[in-house]
Amino acid sequence: MSPRSRNKPHEIVERALELSRADGCVVIASEDSTANLRWAGNALTTNGVTRGRTVTVIATVDGAEGTASGVVSRSAVTAEELEPLVRAAEAAAREAGPAEDAQPLVTGVPHSPGFTEAPAETSPAVFDAFAPALGESFARARAEGRELYGFALHRMDSHYLGSSAGLRLRHDQPTGTLELNAKSPDRTRSAWAGRATRDFTDVDPAALDAELARRLAWARTKVELPAGRYETLLPPTAVADLMIYQAWSATAREAAEGRTVFSKPGGGTRIGEKLSGLPLSLRSDPAYPGLQCAPFVLTGSSGEDASVFDNGLPLSATDWIREGVLERLATTRHTAGLTDLPVTPAVDNLILDAGGTRSLDEMVADTERGLLLTSLWYIREVDPASLLLTGLTRDGVYLVEKGEVVGEVNNFRFNESPVSVLSRATEAGRTEQTLPREWGDYFSRAAMPALRVPDFNMSSVSQGV
Q1: Rounded Cα distance, 186 and 169, in Å
Q2: CB 3.0–4.6 Å: which of 3, 49, 215, 270 could bond 191 by disulfide?
């Protein structure tokens, strides 16, 4: 192999496997490229393109007491730097004790097409239609007396996974996010909107700007409200932030050990229990249109919901909650064995659906008196036993009376459990793709409905914006 060919991702994988002296080896070569636009005060400020590479080597070493694993990741790895990386992973495995999650490496998975082809890349061309439309929004906002701020980011990740057990898998993952903030010139009013996308062809800056203009108009009237429980309309972005945290907490082993909200009093898990009176279904599906994600386990670390030994394990559509009933909790092969539950690895998307057809505007029109939120942020866990979370509202809480938004109210700190929210929700709107504002940097592939909660707990007034 020439030096140039050795630098291709699949060649990096093959060469690292050739160099390995461990009993087992998994190599993940990830190539990423990003394109971005940033703007402030109705004008573009920066744009750029970046590229990077990360190589992760997972070495497994068999011993008298069990199999140990060592994981080492490095960025910008060249062919010449591969051997030290492989040796470092092997040394880490030898120095570690037996891995609790040790399992045979995955076998029998068909090779991915295109494994030896060049990685996919993004470029500024991803914004060819979006950028001119954004410019038109700047002009309109300027003429109407508001300022737009925000950024658009598109990232393409190509992951190449190979193992000494014969796996040769590849996945290309496009990820796009847009965050748009509108402010009044005196900075007393602010509104936010966000979108997740694969390629920016489905993002309409004009529609987003029109929505922000409407919210800024609502905010001209200010209403002070005390803390308390209010009928509240949670938009899809806020529902996504709550459901993602719930999904991160829905692991089988922790539930079986009595440590989470999904633990059954007296032992076991709450699988089979009804969690909601609405026909809510929470699921993941690697092939869900618009939210496609890796169809196999791809991880560089082990934890309650992932195991490096499971790399390459096929993923499929999974119902976590079906028609309001808890169906599955996340397991690795190891924790499935401990809990006597099916092997159900986590998937990198999340969809909540109750068959609703109404838009958020239609739900507002049917509200006698309540609050309409924009988004949640600074979400933190208070109590894992009940999954009680606290956080703040941001960029607009609006008062609805007799089906009309009558003004903007102060922000609040909330205290709520996602599981409790699902149990008390009285209506779910239509499911739509959304960008979680709090967790979007880590988990952006979500489709959620708006939810009506009759007694959402606004525990205190916040001075946040």
Answers
A1: 53
A2: 215
